[in-house]
């Protein structure tokens, strides 16, 4: 097992923010990126070879602007993603790579269900890794003015991988946003957390499951994963719970939640001194979970609330937890209604994180605050009744 320490040292010299102006003529942009790479100390021959095939890809921009899947609610999203086939493949891969997962749990303290869930949701255990040319995706998003500060450093990280022999600018393919391999990691993350899990001298996240899984585990630890601690657990909540105390922005110890009547649906609650939040993805009448400190690390991997909650719950299922009790949640809002709500909340002075029709964590916090002011059950679940009240 070998981490890319030397390559990491080189990558840390990369600028943290976009240093090439975005937009304008793409060929001129490529030339400016090449000049920046040379200024960072990359050789001219490597720079010329690396950027020779760079092209703009309109399909990347289209994909970036159309992430409507996250408008689904937790129950619909999780049922769509957690199939019986994925459960069976998860069990099979847990057995096939048992020795790898044993090493991961020993060295990084990351439970196997966590990585199996990411592996399943990101690429169906490596079967669907994306067919976008990675360099073109990263260059297109670096040129686009929406988030160049995120993607330009990824281009230079990919250049460093190319110099190490672990990236082919013409042939490497992955997701539209530039992620590579079985657990979908960006080039800079590969430089910082890539692990040679199979001992062949390279980090091959596309073809080596040990490399991908070990690298994913190291990345989670790098992002703040607390070794051998829980992340999410289904609970039963009393009907008289103070709903304003729920949500990721409110924390109490496990012991304090237990005193308020929170109980595990199966198994036992985590260590009584752990800080935790009661999470109600679809309000007080829907599924209920206790979110431990490790749950927050999921948001460092993916920013979508519904994706993160699904991935964390899926990990518990892969380790034997029962199917959640869906309850009988109140009907939610359509995407258009959610945008109306976000517009109204924004006018009231709340930061909802953008008017995108997606019920993310900031919108939830705003909804909960308004519910409390209106004397409604403050469970952060927006309904048509709330929308009409505003």
TrEMBL record:
<dbReference type="GO" id="GO:0009253">
    <property type="term" value="P:peptidoglycan catabolic process"/>
</dbReference>
<dbReference type="InterPro" id="IPR011970">
    <property type="entry name" value="MltB_2"/>
</dbReference>
<feature type="domain" description="Transglycosylase SLT">
    <location>
        <begin position="26"/>
        <end position="315"/>
    </location>
</feature>
<dbReference type="InterPro" id="IPR002477">
    <property type="entry name" value="Peptidoglycan-bd-like"/>
</dbReference>
<dbReference type="Pfam" id="PF01471">
    <property type="entry name" value="PG_binding_1"/>
</dbReference>
<feature type="domain" description="Peptidoglycan binding-like">
    <location>
        <begin position="334"/>
        <end position="389"/>
    </location>
</feature>
<dbReference type="InterPro" id="IPR036365">
    <property type="entry name" value="PGBD-like_sf"/>
</dbReference>
<protein>
    <submittedName>
        <fullName>Lytic transglycosylase</fullName>
    </submittedName>
</protein>
<dbReference type="Pfam" id="PF13406">
    <property type="entry name" value="SLT_2"/>
</dbReference>
<dbReference type="InterPro" id="IPR023346">
    <property type="entry name" value="Lysozyme-like_dom_sf"/>
</dbReference>
<keyword id="KW-0732">Signal</keyword>
<dbReference type="InterPro" id="IPR043426">
    <property type="entry name" value="MltB-like"/>
</dbReference>
<dbReference type="InterPro" id="IPR031304">
    <property type="entry name" value="SLT_2"/>
</dbReference>
<feature type="signal peptide">
    <location>
        <begin position="1"/>
        <end position="18"/>
    </location>
</feature>
<dbReference type="InterPro" id="IPR036366">
    <property type="entry name" value="PGBDSf"/>
</dbReference>
<dbReference type="GO" id="GO:0008933">
    <property type="term" value="F:peptidoglycan lytic transglycosylase activity"/>
</dbReference>
């Amino acid at each position: 097992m070998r981490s890319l320490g030397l390559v990491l040292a080189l990558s840390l010299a990369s600028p943290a923010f976009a240093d090439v102006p975005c937009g304008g003529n793409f060929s001129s942009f490529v030339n400016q990126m090449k000049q920046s790479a040379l200024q960072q100390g990359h050789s001219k021959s490597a720079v010329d070879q690396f950027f020779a095939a760079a092209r703009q890809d309109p399909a990347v921009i289209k994909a970036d602007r159309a992430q409507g899947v996250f408008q689904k609610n937790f129950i619909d999203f999780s049922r769509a993603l957690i199939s019986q086939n994925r459960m069976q493949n998860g069990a099979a891969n847990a057995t096939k790579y048992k020795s790898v997962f044993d090493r991961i749990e020993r060295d990084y303290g990351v439970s196997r269900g966590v990585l199996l869930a990411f592996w399943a949701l990101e690429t169906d255990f490596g079967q669907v890794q994306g067919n976008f040319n990675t360099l073109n995706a990263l260059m297109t998003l670096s040129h686009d003015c929406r988030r160049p500060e995120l993607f330009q450093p990824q281009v230079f990280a990919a250049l460093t991988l190319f110099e190490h022999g672990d990236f082919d600018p013409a042939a490497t393919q992955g997701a539209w946003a530039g992620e590579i391999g079985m657990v979908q990691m960006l080039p800079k993350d590969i430089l910082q957390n890539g692990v040679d899990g199979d001992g062949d001298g390279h980090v091959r996240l596309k073809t080596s499951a040990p490399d991908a899984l070990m690298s994913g585990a190291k990345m989670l630890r790098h992002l703040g994963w607390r070794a051998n601690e829980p992340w999410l657990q289904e609970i039963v909540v009393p009907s008289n719970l103070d709903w304003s105390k729920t949500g990721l922005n409110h924390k109490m110890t496990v012991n304090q939640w237990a005193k308020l009547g929170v109980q595990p649906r199966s198994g036992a609650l985590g260590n009584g001194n752990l800080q935790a939040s009661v999470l109600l993805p679809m309000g007080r009448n829907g599924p209920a979970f206790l979110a431990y400190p490790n749950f927050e690390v999921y948001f460092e991997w993916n920013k979508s609330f519904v994706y993160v909650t699904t991935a964390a719950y899926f990990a518990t299922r892969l380790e034997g937890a029962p199917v959640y009790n869906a309850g009988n949640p109140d009907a939610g809002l359509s995407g258009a209604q959610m945008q109306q709500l976000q517009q109204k909340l924004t006018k009231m002075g709340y930061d909802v994180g953008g008017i995108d029709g997606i019920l993310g964590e900031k919108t939830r916090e705003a909804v909960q605050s308004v519910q409390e002011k209106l004397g409604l059950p403050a469970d952060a679940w927006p309904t048509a009744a709330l929308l009409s009240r505003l």
